[in-house]
Design goal:
The chain has a domain at about 10-150: 2-Layer Sandwich (Nucleotidyltransferase, domain 5), CATH 3.30.420.10. The protein contains eight helices and five strands, in the order ββαβααββααααα. Strands 3-2-1-4-5 form a five-stranded mixed sheet. The chain has helices at about 50-65, 75-80, 85-95, 130-155, 160-165, 170-180, 185-190, 190-195, and strands at about 10-20, 25-35, 65-75, 105-110, 120-125. Strand 1 (about 10-20) and strand 2 (about 25-35) form a beta hairpin. The chain is an alpha/beta fold. Helix 1 (about 50-65) packs across helix 4 (about 130-155).
Length: about 200
């Protein structure tokens, strides 16, 4: 059972990202403030949920959250500032987009930088510990998947409909055959041909 809060006396926002390990597409981040009495037995780390359940939970989160926001950093910016900095910047943008200012941030992972003086705490695998982080993980994942499904229509040869930009064998082989697109992260792909093994 995931925890409803880290400190029940504070307005907490959970933050998480999606797409950090992809070869293509933006990194997305979300920040969510849930009501103090929110509970949902199905909500968990988005990686453990089916696509259908993620979509169901996205609607519930968007309807019942006190505030939520989603942000993204594109591949060009990721190449300029690196994926860790891009992930943190995306979370900062998501927090900035909240209509309610949080007192405290719950961050999934082990790295973050202070934002606007709001206190924070990092939790490794926090999306499996706190409902607000799990909610953020669901929003970040579903918004990113939605983006990649649209991108697949423009670049169907890379199989983003199924791999969402992650480094599957089919994706790597498509890069070898067709080269890179404007959505690919160049710093992730410069040696991709050398990494393909048969």
């Amino acid at each position: 059972m995931l925890l409803n809060a880290y400190n029940k006396n504070l307005t907490e926002a959970g933050c998480d990202e999606a797409g950090r390990g992809c070869l293509a597409g933006p990194v997305f981040a979300a920040s969510v403030i849930l009501p103090p009495d929110f509970n949902n037995a199905e909500l968990n780390d988005s990686k453990l949920l089916t696509p259908k359940l993620r979509e169901k939970l996205r609607k519930i989160i968007e309807k019942e959250a006190m505030a939520y926001a989603v942000a993204k950093i594109d591949a060009h910016e990721i190449d300029k500032i690196n994926i860790l900095n891009a992930s943190i910047r995306a979370m900062h943008l998501a927090v900035n987009g909240l209509k309610v200012k949080p007192d405290f941030l719950l961050i999934d992972g082990n790295r973050f930088r202070d934002y606007e003086g709001i206190p924070h705490k990092c939790f490794v695998k926090g999306d499996g510990r706190f409902l607000s982080i799990a909610a953020a993980s669901v929003l970040a994942k579903t918004y990113r998947d939605e983006f990649m499904l649209q991108a697949d229509k423009a670049y169907p040869q890379y199989h983003w409909k199924s791999n969402k930009g992650y480094p599957t064998l089919a994706h790597k082989m498509a890069i070898q055959e067709y080269g890179l697109t404007p959505l690919h992260r160049l710093t992730f792909n410069c040696n991709i041909q050398l990494k393909i093994s048969f």
